[in-house]
Amino acid sequence: MVFSSVTFLFFFLPAVLAVVTLAPERLRNRVLLAASLLFYTWGSHWFVVVLVGTSVLDWMLVAQARAAHDRREIEGRRRWLAASIVLNLGVLAYFKYAGFISVDIVSRFTPVDRPPDWLTDVVLPIGISFFTFQRISYAVDVSTGRDEPTRTFVDYLLYICLFPQLIAGPIVRYRDISGQLRGRVMTLHQASDGVVRFSLGLAKKVLIADTLSPVVAAVFDGGGDVSTPAAIVGVVAYTLQLYFDFSGYSDMAIGLGLMFGFSFPENFDRPYTSHSVTEFWRRWLITLSTWFRDYLYIPLGGSRSGRTYRNLAVVFLLTGLWHGAAWTFVAWGALHGGILLVERLLGGRLFSGLAGRVVTLGLVMAAWVIFRAQTLGRAGEIFEALVRFDFGPVRPDIALALDTRTMLALVFGSVVFFLPRNVISADRSTPDRRALHVPARAALVAVALPASLVVASTQTFSPFLYFQF
Amino acid sequence: MRFLPVLTPRARVLRGLTVLWFVALLAVPGVLSLVRDAPESVEQRLARPFPEIDVGGIWNGEVFSEVDGHLQDRLAIRDRAIDWHAWFSYELLRDSTNSDVLVGEGEWLYYGPVFSRPCDDAAAGAWPEPGALMAELEMANRRLAAAGIDFFVTRVVEKGFIETDYLPGAIPGRECTAALQADMRNAFAPSEFTIDLWGLFEDAASPERPLYWARDTHWNDRGRVLAVEALVESMAPGVWDIEPVEGPDREIVGEPARLIGIDGLHRGPRIRLPRPEITTTETRREQWIHCFMSEGAGALVPGRTVVLTDSHLWRSEALLAPWFEELCLLNWRGEDNPAAAATAAEADRILLSLSARETASLARWADRLADWAE
Question: How far is B128 from chain A (nearest CA, A)?
Fold first, then answer.
């Protein structure tokens, strides 16, 4: 079930909101957990058994680690924590990387000809990358004494699979939400902010990201040659599509969280206005960057160990792999890591001022080509089209996909993105600096929300030409 | 913990209204959908029913996708939402909401697969080599002749190749398909069993007197009459003996218009072929088989004629039937219907008529017809 589906918008969400609001406070976590498990089962079916089963096991391992910590048995704590991390990374490795490792590495570079089906035909469970990281976050925070364990398994499982952020983030560190799991209030203030934020996210996803999808697919998946203008349009469209899609989902998750009394961390902060790639990673998928910083980079020694460059390289190779099991993601992570290393060597950024923003955006967009292309070969073809300066006619399938609505989404998305923050957001000096101005809130709720609902409810419009009774 | 300022009364009201508005927008359509009777049909198909819940269906997710479908179909605001979305996309932006529908000049709509399908077939190795196709058709012709059946085959040229003045600029596959169809046309030169409708329509094409509906993919009455006359004359020269009579316009709802969710109602010529001396009776009407018998003083194509066809001739039955002593139309969608085989086996002549984009399936159909006849 996705947030922009008819089932979620018109049936699941109103029902869950009603039941949670009416439920006594002591039962709210249980109601939310039941809703979250139904939500996950709807999209991932039998894998809910794996999710719950491995969560039970992990909860017990972490409890042992915490007990060892409380007894000051450092070795014991390490063993139990290591077992928890091996469990989580093992599950992730099998479901997400078994196919990649067996087909793209083992078969390609060893005499093994054909790996067994149980390695190559693994179905990727939805959200596994997100909840794996959250489970590791809990294991580390609790076993090292940074935070208290949850009172009950229900609270733990709710932290792992709370439906607003279960399948696409933000990745919520346990320490950021542990207090809210124990007790929280649902207020009108938060609920209305949640409505506005959800409306913003839904509009980003349905009205802009989904509208740009066909032209991106035509350029990247269509095969064959593309002219330079088509390649430029494809790369710009994908740059916007990815941001509006991903940040739209995060906005919806944060908005839903507010409606249910949770305050999730921000995940995006106008990333394409960054002056350097280093800054970009402080603004893009913030919760992932923070997770890697706290649970990998710093434990590896961070910047103080004299191995800064090695640590950065490891973090970015894994960041690439986290996004997907393919050489394109490895190359994308390596490219970002390489640019970061160069920036660090040059003292933080390649250029300053407007030039820094333009160069950073150019580098990020170039990296998106590798990220989006199905193969490195296709990425090479797009790069070649970008520098070939072939201004011949745009291929018909791309021209057809580039209709008025797509053009509007391109222009509107660009303009909205690069507008100064204070045009739509309230004064940054206020405590809630991401709050929107009243006109922007009104436009979102009164216009963008109904428009998004209309589009969402027609997405499955599929008339038959012949009567099919 | 978030900073929560104290709200002024006005802010409380505004925030309360915001939440109420949100809940109403989401919950009201949902609740209405559940309390009203489930629609029997939507979009010219049966509405998807609520599935039977079983463990296997939950395990593999079928139940959930079926429930999704059911809820989508019975969503209370669906019809309105489709109207608004189509109005915004087509009337305001001149965009198509369906990648299969190309928005042309004026009110003209075209069906994209006409241009993309042959090219896709060729890329997949399924588009036949013209010489080989003709050899297979000739083989079927010999087999049918041996069974005492006259065989005719024709390809119906689609609107996109005839009403070219209103085509949009960007059409995926157009050049590739045009080349494939040109080669095929050369191979389909008129012979004892091939009927060239393509050339006929090309010669008759005129922007002032279109042969196809603007918002539909099919022939209008003018195009139908042109095709019916050519087919009758090819099968029984000299039978055609009248001039068509053009009456007041009639209205239809076009299929591409339906595909993009707009009204699609539009006008076109109404043409009659008056044969008062002939009485035509419908003798059979099943989902994929329609049969007629005609009798009277006028000339008729003798014996039983079976036409295996797609929607073009299927929709021209009223104009076609009065020219045949006995006519049965078999719709190609009823491929597995055993009655179709029995009907074809009793024919005196068989006409195989498919749209040009379906050329790749002609040989298979001809072979099947010969099997049925034998």
Answer: 23
Q: Are residues B326 and B259 in the same domain?
A: yes
Neighboring chain A residues of B171 at a CB cutoff of 8 Å: 396, 400
Where in the sequence is the domain holding B70, given as residue range(s)? 29-76
Distances in Å between the alpha carbon of A22 and those of A31, A266, B22?
10, 28, 18
Report whether B253 contacts B265 (CB < 8 A): yes
Q: Which residues in chain B are closer than 8 Å to A394, comparing Cβ atoms?
A: 170
More confident of the two residues A111 and A449: A449
Active site residue A323: yes
**Considering its fold, how many domains does chain B have in total?**
2
pLDDT of residue B189 exceeding 90: no
Domain contains B11: no
Q: Which of A198-207, A241-250, A425-434 has the lowest mean pLDDT?
A: A425-434
B140 lies in some domain: yes
- Classify residue B179: in a domain, yes or no: yes
Same domain for B147 and B191, yes or no, is yes
Q: For A140-183, how does the pLDDT look when each residue is reduced to its tens digit (9 = 90+)?
A: 999 999 889 988 999 999 999 999 988 887 999 888 888 898 88
Q: What is the C-alpha separation between A188 and B22, in angstroms, rounded?
A: 13
With beta carbons less than 8 A apart as the criterion, state whether B362 and B354 touch: yes
Number of A/B CB contacts below 8 angstroms equals: 169
Residue contact A404–B93, C-beta within 8 A: yes
- Give domain status of residue B92, yes or no: no
ipTM of the complex: 0.84
Average pLDDT, stretch B245-272? Answer: 86
Same domain for B340 and B304: yes
Task: Check whether residue B33 and residue B181 sit in a common domain.
Answer: no
Between chains, do B2 and A432 touch, taking CB under 8 Å as contact? yes
| pLDDT in the model for residue B29 | 93
pLDDT value for A2: 87
Q: Are residues B148 and B46 in the same domain?
A: no
* Contact between B305 and B348 (Cβ < 8 Å): yes
Using CA of residue B204, residue B206, residue B209, residue B212, what is the dihedral sign? positive
| Tokens coding B330 | 């078999």
